[in-house]
Amino acid sequence: MKLRNFLVVIFAVAGSYTSFAQSNLLNAKTPDEIGKKTAAQMNADNDKPLPYGYVHDRDILMGKATWEIIDLDERVNFPLYYPIDSVNIGSDRRSLFDVLIKGIKTGRITEVYTDDYFNTKKTLKDMASSFKYVDTTQAGRDEINTYYDDYMKGRKILDPQYIDTRDLTGIDIAGYKIKGYWYFDKRQGELKYRMLGICPVSPEARDIGAENPDVIELFWVYFPSIRDVLHENKAFNDKNSAMPLTFDHLLNARRFSAVIYKEENVYGDRKIEDYMKENSQMQLLESERVKEKIRNFEQDMWNY
């Protein structure tokens, strides 16, 4: 009997967790009922991201700002990249890029900047050329040259088949740059990390489909200002789809793989590639050296 009761409790708990993945999935009689939550579920979901604790400047014994790059080709970073299908997969599952863009378009995300020092704000209009590219194909140019007078006098209008339009979407995102601050809290006696900014990087819309295109920084977002938006959107949990992770939790818990490409330094915060030129292996080793330098500060605190 004890074993039976234990199994009943286990299945009951698992069933309650499943409701957070796709509400009403097992009770729905038609597909339209999937995702509809009861009043009790909506009340339980009315939560907020865990607030950051106040840190006084005098409590920071050591601090170091670092910049890292998250490569979305790495398997561990896939929850930030997928799903790239934003039509059939469902409205409750979106990639991080879609969440950021939707937040900017709806006005919920306002702290958008052109650089990683958050000096100059950037609007959606400023980013239009990076997100959409419209040009005339070579066949269209030949068509215009052939009937030049007709086009100039408005007697003919160029057919849409001669217009090349490219839109930047989540599938084109190559990675994310993040800026964060490592600090040693002397009150807590431990090394901590606080993310300050995040920036999607990708080719420009005009370079989509090109071989080895250059990637650019699309925009920088001040991370603490978007935690509510990230907390409302879930990333896929490959180990247990009944317990998805919020993007806020995923990023704050550093559940991703990243490589340091710049640190705060006396040389104007120069990048590692600026002084370790044309040697990828040495750049990775230098990145690890910067990481170990920060870690060793905490370890040295407990050595006498």
UniProtKB/TrEMBL annotation:
InterPro entries: Gliding_motility_assoc_GldN
Signal peptide limits: 1-21
Keywords: Signal
Highest taxon listed in the record's lineage: Bacteria
Name of this protein: Gliding motility associated protien GldN
Organism of origin: Flavobacterium saliperosum
